[in-house]
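re: that chain from earlier
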Amino acid sequence: MVEIDRSISFDGRDIRLTVGLLAPQAGGSVLMQSGDTAVLVTATRSAAREGIDFLPLTVDYEERLYSVGRIPGGFLRREGRPPEKAILTSRLVDRPLRPLFPQWLRDDLQIVATTLSMDELVPPDVLAVTGASLATLLAQIPFDGPMAAVRVGLVGDDFIINPTYAEIEAGDLDLVVAGSPAGVIMVEAGANQLPEQDIIEAIDFGYEAVQDLIQAQRDLMADIGIEMVHEEPPVEVEPTLVEFIRDRAQEPVKQILSQFDIDKNSRDTALDAVKAEIVAAIAELPEEDPIRVTATTNSKVVGNTFKDLTKKLMRRQIVEDGVRVDGRKLDEVRPVSCRVGVLPKRVHGSGLFNRGLTQVLSACTLGTPGDAQNLFDDLQQDLEKRYIHHYNFPPFSVGETKPLRAPGRREIGHGALAERALIPVLPPKNEFPYVIRVVSEILSSNGSTSMGSVCGSTIALMDAGVPVSKPVSGAAMGLIKEGDEVRVLTDIQGIEDFLGDMDFKVAGTDSGITALQMDMKISGLPLEIIEQAIKQALPARLHILEKMMQAIDQPRIEMSPFAPRLLTIKIDPEMIGLLIGPGGKTIKGITEETGAKIDIEDDGTVTISAIDESKAKRAKNIVQGMTRKLNEGDVYAGKVTRIIPIGAFVEFLPGKEGMIHISQLADYRVGKVEDEVAVGDEVIVKVRELDSKGRINLTRLGIHPDQAAAARDAATTNQ
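^ sequence. v structure.
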């Protein structure tokens, strides 16, 4: 293939698309570049495997540490398991891409995006999304594209396309918009409590930029001479089989879907019974009957056809009757209940959130600064996570059995979404130095567990005494689109997510939105429908928020007695080495003596933590004593620690000793040190001299009674 370039400019920032240069044996490949960030994206197609009844699409985002001039850590010194950021980027590429493949496609497809170079300005993720579209087109895979994505930031009052890392950090919005010719297909956003209208305008702004990238792909394809592929779908299921199933299942399924007083499990059991009757009826047909032959040849055809019928009937009931399978109105939220403190206080804070059959238990743990997550073997540098949100989805939550494995992409993605939703309301480090970890355990799932995690985690944080600025709630919006008929659903449950067209999660406070995530199962939506969904989510969020506030209306003043107590002091950075000591000997000694944990930052911030506050205070006094700058003439109350022939050593500050020469013990001649003081005696001393070797010489002479009284009071206060 001849090498061809195409460039698009947004506010002076170019995106360059290059094909025909790299990976010639891949089905399609493109090098996406902006600044010094370069991402190679490939798309490859293999023949379908026998028995596959779904689209086996694999999307992988690969980071190479050479792209930022670093060598991997660990024993092997090579990249290993993908870091969390890479997994989230893989999901970001997959989500807008998957709905654009035809539903009948069963070939193995693999999209691989590899960051080859990355600068400190341009994030590679949106380049990978657009590159996946172009690589798919070049591979001539059936695809309802082109598709593209841009990031939208908010700097001051102005939206900008593809902001730098610094602009994202400083702004109030980090929004990724992906779109196709049919409309917006994916939204991912974190926001600092922005009003709904601002979010809507940002999505519109981003989609306009997406159109330029879509046109660039079309122009490049035309220059190469490659046309969009439109393959014919395979032969449909035997019509007589469809009719056979419809005739026997349509009325029973309609009756089941209109029984609003039954729960999810009863509904699923009833539907399974209808399907079992159909399977039994087919088995009674003659062996040569075409219906039985078709069902026997493809064991999954009956189940798929039954699912399609159920989907059609459920959607028709919503569109035509305006009623959902549980009898709710389209904008109605399921029953909500909340409880806090459901676990013993050894768990620092806990919250139980129920919405319908969805149940989430969130547990909050308060840690010390040393618990921050700051070792990432990925392309990000100097990153410290003080808030960590983990999401667990065990199989029993949906009544299933399967082996327990490490968290998958879904668990990581949902945890990251809840984390993003709550970060805007967490207190800054200088006000609340704790590291916070929240774990959301999904105990029962019937739709929108990620938003349930946001709600449960908010009340768990408040139960733990974390001073959040405002509580955050969330709701998942759904969509049914039949031709020109569109219905937006509030608080979707499992069947509406599974058989619907959209899963749009909206989280925020009563002041504005903090996080968005929209995924589609159709090829795109116009902005006015997205606007309707965002605005319809607001009363739902406020209703849920009201229920949460009934359980706990403000963060607790008192923390769990098992949470660490933190004391923070500031020392001269030049004293850090003295505090740590050779090989860490000094700081280890303080920890062993007091039982407190000590964390030191480069700027001289020292955080001391212990479950027992008295231990933390003892360690604080030692640190302050060791690092306090002394002045000649300062007066202290101290204790004699040892005696030598020429004088006595006195610990006058925690961890700091000086010597009183025998001539400075009294205003008369002293024959023996033991005649004046003994080990353990409390004495008032004054700093007489700080010599060139750092030694501290003390005296008992020339101390005014008022100075002595003040020193005793200070010593008593610091005990």
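The chain has a mean pLDDT of 91.
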